[in-house]
Each structure stands twice: as C-alpha cells, then as structure tokens.
Amino acid sequence: MKILAIESSGAKASAAILDGEALIIEKTGPFKVTHSETLMPMISECFEESSLKPEDIELITVSGGPGSFTGLRIGSATAKGLGFALGKDIVHVPTLDAMAVNFEGSGKVIVPMMDARRSQVYTGIYEFEGGKLNVLLAGCAMPAEELIDIINERFAGREVIFLGDGTPVFGEMISEKCTVPYEIAEGENALQRAKSVGILGCRLAEQGYIISAADEAPEYLRPSQAERVRAEQSGN
User: Fold this and answer.
1) pLDDT tens-digit profile of 50-76?
2) How far apart are CA 25 and CA 4, in angstroms?
3) Are the CB atoms for 196 and 14 separated by under 8 Å?
4) What is the pTM assigned to this prediction?
5) How many angstroms separate the CA atoms of 55 and 130, rounded?
C-alpha cells in the first residue's frame, strides 16, 4: 500500500512516501520556514524523485496534533485537499504517538517533549513491547516539572529517552531533577518525522482507524493563545 505521510506540527515540516511501513522517500523542510511555503513543494519532490504519481497513493496519513496551531492547520488542510482531489481516505495520526515510533526497538521508555510555552510541554510516555506500542501516559499538556516527577516516581531503574523541541528548553531542569538514567535524543529522530507518521498511520489503517477527507481536523489538546487571551480578558 502506497502511503503519503504529512508532518507539520513542529518547526520543520516533512513529507514522505512509504510502501506499507517501508520508506521510499522523505523530505524535510528548513527550520522555522512557513509550512505553507514548503509542504506542497516537498510533496511534489517526493513524487518526482520516487517516480510515483499522486494517483498511485492509496492512503494519506497526517500528523494530527498537538503542536503548532498554524502548522497543524496547514497540514490538515493539505491532507484534506489531497484527499478530496485524489478520492483517498485519511488516517489522523496522534503526533506524540508518532514521535515514539522514532525510537521503536530502543528498549527504552520514550518521552516526547514538545514545547507548549508557559513552562508546559505536550507529552506522553511510551514503550514498545513485542513490536506493540504501549501508551503509558496518554498525550496531554502539563508542566515540565510535573512530567519529570512522574518519570522519577513510575520508572525508577528504567532507561528513558527524551525527544522533541522541548528538550533544549527544559534540558537544565531535566539534568537537575531527573533521577532515572536518561538520554536526550539527537539527529533526525530527535524531532517529528513524516516517516513515523506513515508507519504508525499504516498500522492504524490496518486496525480500521480511517476517516474521510471531510472528517479530517487537527487535535490541539488545549485552546490557542488567542483563545486563552480572549478568555482571560472576559474573566472566564
């Protein structure tokens, strides 16, 4: 099954084409360049360099959130537009779950940390057991310090790997407060990847988690900054 994967939740967008779980090609955009400028050109490059055509795609997978509100909207709109144009279904892939796939096979407790501002992170806690992704803490927004407390309490003696753009933001706090053995991810797997969105999307599709293009929408986990400001101004 040929899969187009879209990732736009962070500062770098990426796109990939997979055959089942096997990566054919992946393109990653520059750091902090508007995804509306880079996403479609990257998708076009994936088709050109793989010698595939859009009509060869059987499924579209998209990173559904949490993450950058603007980025998620661009990714969702791109997936919807392509879904309508090509007549293809979509798999809405939780961003944090997909990030955990970056370190499948590591044997470690996997902890994505996406900077959510206000001393908070979007996070979850995961492990792989027998090739199956186990969600030990479902995706949520919480204070970074609370996350470290949970890790210290629940995973004593386990090795933990942190990844995501929250790790440099809270690196000093992790160093000071984390009492379990840990590693900070580096390299291409340190951030979100379209490849992992495609792999997890393939598995979710096999389990029946498929939606129509009309039903695709981002999942933010919390209100946008503009919505929070309005609520504060109204006293709610």
Assistant:
1) 999 999 999 999 999 999 999 999 999
2) 10
3) no
4) 0.92
5) 35
